[in-house]
Amino acid sequence: MNERVAIIGVGYTQLRPVSSDVSFREMIYEAAVRAYEDAGIEPRDVDTFVAISEDYHEGTAIFDEYVPDQLGAVLKPVHTITQDGLTALASCVMQIKTGLFNIAVLEGHSKASNILYPSHIDAFALDPVTVRPLGFNPVFLAGLEMQRFLVETGNTEYHCGLVVAKNRATAIKNPIAAYPAEISIEDVLSSNPVSFPLKELDIARKADGAFVIVLAKESVAKRLSPYPVYVEGVGWLQDTPNIEMRDLVSSLYLTGAANMAYREAGIRNPIREIDFAEIDDTFSYKELQHIEFLGIARPGESGEMLEEGYFDIDGEFPVNPSGGNIGCGYMYDSSSLRGVYEAVLQLRGFAAERQIPDVETALIASWRGIPTASGGVVILSNRE
Amino acid sequence: MEFKGKSLKDRDFKEKNILYTDWHVKAHYAWDCGVALSKFFEGLKEGKLYGRSCPECGRVVIPPRMFCELCFKPTDKWVLLKDEGRINTFSVSYVNTDASRREKPNVPAVIEIEGASEGMGILHLVAHPEKIEWENLEEVLSMIKIGTKVKAVWKPSNEREGAITDIKYFVPVKEE
Amino acid sequence: MHFPQKVAVLGAGLTKFMRRAQETPKELAFEAAKMALDEAGLTIDDIDAVVLVTAPDAFDGVHMNGEYLADGAGGSKKPYMRSFVGGGSGVFGIINGWYHIASGHFRTCLVVAEEKMSSSMPHPQGTFNAIYDQFTERPLGVNLLWIFSLEMNRYMSVHKVPLETIALVAKKNKKNGLDHPCTQAGIAGDYTVEEIVNSEIMCWPVTRLMVSTVSDGAGALVLASEDFAKKVTDKPIWIEGVGWCLDTSYWTNRDLYYPKYVEYAARMAYDMAGIKDPRKEIHVVEPYDPFAYKELHHLEGLLLADKGEAPKLLEKGFWDRDTETGIPSSPSGGLLGVGNPIAAAGLMKVAEIFWQVKGTAGKRQAKREVKRGLAQAWGDLMQVGTVVILGK
Lengths: 384, 176, 392
What we know:
The structure holds three protein chains of three kinds.
Chain A: E1 5-12, H1 24-39, E2 48-52, H2 55-58, E3 78-81, H3 85-97, E4 103-111, H4 118-123, H5 140-153, H6 157-170, H7 185-189, E5 193-195, E6 198-199, E7 208-217, H8 218-224, E8 229-238, H9 252-265, H10 270-273, E9 276-279, H11 284-293, H12 302-307, H13 324-328, H14 335-348, E10 361-367, E11 374-381
Parallel strand pairs in A: 2-3, 2-4, 9-10
Antiparallel strand pairs in A: 1-7, 1-8, 4-7, 5-6, 8-11, 10-11
Helix pairs in contact in A: 6-11
Chain B: H1 10-14, H2 34-45, E1 49-53, E2 60-61, E3 77-81, E4 84-90, E5 92-95, E6 101-113, E7 121-126, H3 137-143, E8 149-154, E9 167-172
Antiparallel strand pairs in B: 1-2, 1-3, 4-6, 4-8, 5-6, 6-7, 8-9
Chain C: E1 7-14, H1 25-40, E2 49-53, H2 57-60, H3 65-69, E3 80-84, H4 89-102, E4 108-116, H5 125-129, H6 144-159, H7 163-176, H8 193-197, E5 201-204, E6 206-207, E7 216-225, H9 226-232, E8 237-246, H10 260-273, H11 278-281, E9 284-286, H12 292-301, H13 310-315, H14 334-337, H15 342-358, E10 372-379, E11 384-391
Parallel strand pairs in C: 2-3, 2-4, 9-10
Antiparallel strand pairs in C: 1-7, 1-8, 4-7, 5-6, 8-11, 10-11
């Protein structure tokens, strides 16, 4: 199909450290109702549904079973993508582009608080023969990578602390954020060491919540929505699952995913052609690494640019105007849908106190977290 | 065409002819029951079965839910149901939850609950009305079939904890 | 460009199906992928995107199993996507690959299905308990066989089908399985109805010979756009239709005697393929048969028989491999006759239709002329239908 695909509805729940008052079904229903209202549709208007989940994040084998009811998707084409939100968004885009579907719905959620031993689950993702038996808490991988990245690029722990302070403070203006706070760089640097050089406050804390996103082909979007936001490019890439073989300095998965998305969107110079970005910051250094390997800054330059305020919400290239995973809470694979939600609000001009003026094009970039090297990139714009 | 694959025998593990690593994952969860199931479980604690009704389609559903999955509207009323119903389907299981064999079978069934809309069933066990335990397949088939009326047998109230197992099982009852 | 872009199947690969494979999950995935690439005459460098399917992570014993399997499946440094609809995943992987190409995003896509159930100890059954609702069902001490035997009893009772007739499915498929080169040791054979009905009762009405085994194995298919396919082959096999559908998770609120979700998925695929009368236009079928009754249940959902009629047609030999007037069903031997490494078993069914349509199924080739065939899988809590139609 030669038409573009647009986002015409977004639904959310408040992100919270715990959500014991609602079941996952009730939580997702709340986000779905908001998304359908926002898009001006009923679930029966939807042609295909995609949900994201990983069984061990849910505590259920084949979580796909529990997807349809709370989306109004009973007896409809529904499938799960066991990957991050942006890869699943790419699935929706491809389905619409076949020309057979007018409207697609994407759902992602987190009940991270229900997982009693999350680091044991993370460890269960390590190679069962060569890595897992070593018995480390898998967060050590972030320590290894952070160390290599800082040494090779010349960025510093101070810069990482600055990322945390920026994102926590930015989140103060985001009403759905779970972890807004005024904290100092010193607070971060003096927080408990976890896996040198990684410290406690460098790590995004987890949150519960749900997002539902409605997509449609351009002709339908224009009919239904006064402010469609177009998907100009999608990209996703797997580096290598073998941690021993990875280049720990560069997040090559995002370089590859970005090249794919930039090509589709016709972007040659990202820093000039894109106005702001929502970029994975599950660990503080990841924001800097991702900025550099998405081609927004040259390797080694992101820290200084950050110090100059370049990536602040009122800077030249705002990064994580929502507050990012560090300010809003980490939702595993659904974290990137918060990025999409924020970008849609900004591009519609609905971001209230944290609105960035005159924005046309946004970049969202995701990483699947430890121990993966895979991620996705989406380019959105409000250009007719 | 050549199809690859080297098949092993149990013996190869026992005799350590092959190498393997062993891991037990600590996968524990505390799932939030939410609004609908919290009320449902509180009801079970009191020896009551609650359903929920949809103002759009009028269905009374069990297990209860805060929204109707067909109309996509909030459900709006709690409906007290009877602790009896009819067997929609059943089977006679000689296999335990860990795949080991049972000497005597148990009987899982889908039970359509009286007072809920037609076809609204829950999964539970059906026991022998006097002996509780079933002897064998023949005994089960002689006493129950699809459509048989059954009634819940509850744990004593001081042992109930707000769980589906507060109903010990259902037993077949005589038709009036 | 015309959309959806036509999608061709260029090659298929399978490993043997085994109770315990020595190969790691990655190695199984690699062997199947390599074989599919070889049949297509391609290398991994010709592949633009990779799709992986595998059923619950608990079998392989790796969280985020898709990530772990990526290099074995040929997904390193590539756009790599894992889709998941439980037991329906093997056929869904092809649908996932189909939309990669039908959308115009990619020229080629390698679809890999892997399952290593034997890694799960003490028995893979334990994993299946976690498919039930954690609030209202799991505390009852469930096992996977329950849901099948409950559905089977409902189906038999509503249509008054004798157990002996259902046993004929196992008889047919276990015999067909003797001719499949990947058949798991000890599961195919020439059984009598009495042997099947009187085999050990697992969960009445299901007996041991009416249920498929647990298995290790992998399968792969290479998909390509029309332009690409025409460069490498004169006789491409096309994906003519795909369909999928998911029913409510409240399975105790549904009448299990009929799989509406399979019917909806089939109608979607028939519409796409322009099929008006499937009983005339489908020449061979691979319905999902993890349990004997399931094949009949699914043939009805696929609209290839009226409700309650599939067993009667079975008695008449309508679904036999050498039928001249009927529709051969599970000529591969199916899950009952070849083995059931879940996602790989679903893909095996699509591979069988590919080889049947291509005319290279050897001893398993249907007697009647095959221009078009259908593969279907099922999954979740009696909930998912996935359908793929291939044709010349």
